[in-house]
Structure formats: C-alpha cells, structure tokens
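Hello Y.,

Per our agreement to keep a running log of every chain we model this quarter, I'm adding this entry. I've kept the format consistent with earlier entries: sequence first, then predicted structure.
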Amino acid sequence: MALLRDTVILFLLGFLGWGLFTLIKFPVPALLGTIFLVGGLRAANIAVPLLPEFIYPLVQLMFGLQIGSGLTREATKKFKEMLIPLLIVTTWALTILFLLGYIAEKVTFLDLKTAILSSSVGGLPEMTVLALATNADVSIVVIAQTLRMIGTFIGLPLIIHFMVAKEGGKNKNSRKNNRETSAWFKTLFIDKAQKVYVNLLSIIRKAGHPIQLFSLCCNKGFLKTCKIIFLSITIALVGGSLFYYIGVPAGLMVGSTFFIALASIKGLEVITVPKGFIGVIQIGLGLEVSKNISKETFEVLASGELLITLLLLTLITIITSFVIALIVHKISKWDLATCLMACAPAGFTVMVALAIDYGKNSIQVTMLHMVRVLAIKICVPIFFMLLF
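Predicted structure for the entry above:
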C-alpha cells in the first residue's frame, strides 16, 4: 500500500507541474514541469517519496516504442528522394555533438559524457534517459537542452512567419500542399493509433453486462487489437532486453526503438503510443530525474562559468543549424522555410505543426527530424559503450 500511495503522490505532483508549465506555455511541460516542481521540493529539503524502481524501465520501453513506431514502411518510401538531405542533417547532428562536447569538456569542469549529451540535438527526453543511464550530470544536460529548445522555439517561428509573410501568405498551392501533408501526417501518426484503440474503446463504452462483455471480447477486432498490443510489447521488450544485456547505455530504450522500427518497416502493425499518454511517460522520466536534484545542484547551475558555456553551446548549435538549412536548400531546391524547420535543432512536434500551419512540406520536416533523433539514439549509446 505504501508503494501505491507514494506512486500516486508523485504522479499527482507531476500532473501539477505539467499543468503549471502548460499555463506559462513552457516547452515539454510534462517533463520540465515535473523536474522543476519535484526537484525544487527536494532542493528545499521537503520530504518527497522516491519513484518505485519498476517505473523507469517502463519509461525507457515506452520512449523506444514511441519513436520506433513512427518509422513505417510508408515513411521509408520517402527515403530515396530525401537521401542527401537526410545524410547532411544526420552527419551534422552527430558531428556537432561530439565536436562541441569535446570542446566543452576541455574548457569547463564538465565530464565528456555530460558535455556530449548537453551538446546533442537528439531530443530532451531521449538525452535525459541517456544521461541517467551513463551517470552523466543529468541536471546540467536538462538545463542545456532546455536552453536550446527555448532559443529555437522563440526565434525560429518569428523568422518563419516573416518569410511566409514576405512570400505573400498562404496561396492556393500552399493550401493544397497543407491539406496533402496534413493528411500524410495524420495517416502516419494518428490514424494508426486510432485503428489500434478503436475496438478497445468501443468495448469500454458498450459493455454493460457480463454476457455482452464476453461476446465483445470474442470479437475479431478486439482479439486483433490485443494481438497487436501483445506483439508490440513483446518486440520492444525483447529488443530492449537484448541491448541492455550486451551493455548498451539506455539499452531498454535504444533496443526497443531499433526492434520496433525494424518490425514497422517490415510491415508488421505495431501499437503507437497515444498522444495523451506521452505526457504521462514524460512525468515518469521527470520523477526519475528529480531523484538526482539537490540544493547543491542549483548552486552549480547558478555559477557564471557554466551558464556562459551553456549559452555558447546553444548559440553555436542554432547558428550551425541555419548553415545546414542553407546547404540543404541549395542542394535539394526545397524552399528555405521548409529547410529551416527540417534542420531546427529542437522541437520535432512544434516544427511539424509549423510546417502544416504555413502550408509547407511536413513530410520532409518529419523525416529529417525523425531520422536525426533515431541516429543519435543508436550511435551515442554505442559510442559510450565502446569508449567508457
């Protein structure tokens, strides 16, 4: 009972942090709201229960399932026409995190793992999981990633808005492209989830009698849904366990990502993590991160040397992303606004939403972000395993 009580208290605090950060329109509110609220309570020496140990492995598996399920056979058909931009962006992402990480390690007190993860453009949740798995300084990684996201979210939408306004706004062609790319994005990320869950939700609504419930459970659609859920979880668990036991950092996340992506590309129907549930997963990750926060953490983060270093890392990353966007624009002949969104160093969901809103090609934006994050999630843990 104590375990259940502590878990409920922690997630209620996480939901409170999520709500507060949503109100102030902060990026990734579920994760950062939980970290700052629960971590702040711990730093103030207020007694907060510790997260049960079984939650964190589940969080890793769910993150792997989320990214891996997005890389479908339909999505990979776009690889050929996007091959050069994909190679450019992935090479940039891997180069900048190792190069900047090495420089940061030499000029500051940061260890190499913390410096590399702080310089990464691979996504805040994923880099946080890796920081926890490799004993890097997770609080510094979170702050560095947050600065990069805020810089991107504030500056890039203003630039895109100015560029689109200069083009004359949304013309007929852009509205047509908007509908096409919105439909593609909906098919890839939303329809799949609805297809998996529709039968289960139907049962919950309709089943009011034991006999009726039994007949509904024997329905072919329900049995198929159960089969998809069981198969997806099994694939994620097998892949995650394999990578974990061979010593890959954050092996549960990396392995489940790789195996689910492979299964999805091969044409197997896998479950997609519902959009609303992703926030709950991020709360779980935030609660795990908050275990590492104390009063000393805030004292270190307040030091001028560290803050200047993190701001410089953020500035260099954003500037180089603009350079890469110009290169992709010249080579691919895509419009510059699309290239800027596709090469943005943060905000996969935000950039895709911007592309749809302004009638740009969200397929290109989605693919470049997805492949970049996938490459970092697989390459960085293997690099850590070999080096350390």
